[in-house]
């Protein structure tokens, strides 16, 4: 009964094909899941070619209480912007960063002194827009804790904030560590800024006085439309502060870029 035998083979082949298709569909589903997982991780990793760190704000980001304590010397909408430099400077340099962002640290290390120098010379004023999205991406509370402490420093004076800002980047923990989440470590770093560690500053950091304000600042960043840190804009125009080689601009390169955009 050759025809019957042939039909059985056909059925078996079809069953095997169906099973193979089902198995491939399952493997494809697993690959998609892995791809999604890798994409999420990639969103918080520094790309080998060198790009800004991508923002992935948490759904449960605390926008802060409307009655939160606000440090002195704040500016901008809802007191969420920190301005450094001469108020009447002809240009504005907007800097978007997260204290835990390693690419921000690379830029600060490479060109930070020049960024401040040009502001001190009056070429522009700096508007700091600070974030805390890496707490959501990496876990922990270091970005928010450092931001709240920066608020305590701002309350002591804009110059104190800027000096403390620089100390935080100079002592940034590894991306996988939540070193800034330790208030005692934050206070120890504050010793590096002469005159900062007043009784009021210490109490504000210890009590978390400006945590609510830090949440408002972080929320403002999340709504800004900026998709990565560091982002630097001159009068609203985004500047490429990370070169095509993946390296942060040097001070001389940054100075040349500013000159190219504002003339003089």
The helix/strand order is HEEEEHEHHHHHHEEEH
What name does CATH use for the topology of the largest domain? Answer: Glutaredoxin
- Kindly give the count of domains: 2
Find the structural class using helix and strand composition.
alpha+beta
Please compute the radius of gyration using only Cα atoms.
Answer: 25 Å
Note the total helix count: 9
The main sheet orders its strands as 2-3-5-4-7-8
Please estimate the helix content: 40-55%
Kindly describe this structure:
The structure is a single chain. The protein is α+β, with helices and mostly antiparallel strands and 264 residues long. It folds into 2 domains: 1-42; 53-262, Glutaredoxin, CATH 3.40.30. 51% of the residues lie in helices and 12% in strands. It is built from 9 helices and 8 strands. The chain has helices at residues 2-42, 102-120, 133-138, 142-156, 158-170, 183-190, 199-207, 211-222, 251-262; strands at 53-54, 74-75, 81-84, 92-98, 125-131, 228-229, 231-234, 237-239. The chain has a 6-stranded mixed β-sheet with strand order 2-3-5-4-7-8, sandwiched between helices. Strand 2 (74-75) and strand 3 form a beta hairpin. Residues 1-11, 25-50 and 59-63 have low confidence and may be disordered.
Give a concise summary.
Helices cover 51% and strands 12% of the residues. With 264 residues, it is an alpha+beta fold.
Summarize this structure as a short list of keywords or feature phrases.
264 residues; 2 domains; six-stranded mixed β-sheet
């Amino acid at each position: 009964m050759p025809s019957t035998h042939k039909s059985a083979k056909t059925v078996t082949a079809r069953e095997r094909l169906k099973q193979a298709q089902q198995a491939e569909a399952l493997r494809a589903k697993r690959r998609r899941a892995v791809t999604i997982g890798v994409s999420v991780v990639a969103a918080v990793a520094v790309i080998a070619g060198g790009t800004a760190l991508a923002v992935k704000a948490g759904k449960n980001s605390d926008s802060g209480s409307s009655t939160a304590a606000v440090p002195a010397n704040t500016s901008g909408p809802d007191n969420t912007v920190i301005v450094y430099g001469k108020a009447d400077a002809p240009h504005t340099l907007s800097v978007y960063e997260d204290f835990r962002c390693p690419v921000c640290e690379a830029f600060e290390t490479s060109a930070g002194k020049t960024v401040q120098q040009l502001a001190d010379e009056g070429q522009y004023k700096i508007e700091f827009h600070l974030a805390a999205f890496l707490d959501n991406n990496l876990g922990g509370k270091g970005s928010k804790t450092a931001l709240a402490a920066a608020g305590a420093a701002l309350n002591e004076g804009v110059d104190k904030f800027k000096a403390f800002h620089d100390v935080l980047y100079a002592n940034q923990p590894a991306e996988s560590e939540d070193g800034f989440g330790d208030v005692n470590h934050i206070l120890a770093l504050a010793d590096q800024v002469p005159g900062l560690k007043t009784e009021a500053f210490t109490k504000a950091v210890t009590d978390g006085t400006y945590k609510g304000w830090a949440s408002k600042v972080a929320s403002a960043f999340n709504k800004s439309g900026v998709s990565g840190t560091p982002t630097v804009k001159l009068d609203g125009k985004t500047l490429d502060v990370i070169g095509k080689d993946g390296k942060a601009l040097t001070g001389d390169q940054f100075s040349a870029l500013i000159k190219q955009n504002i003339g003089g």
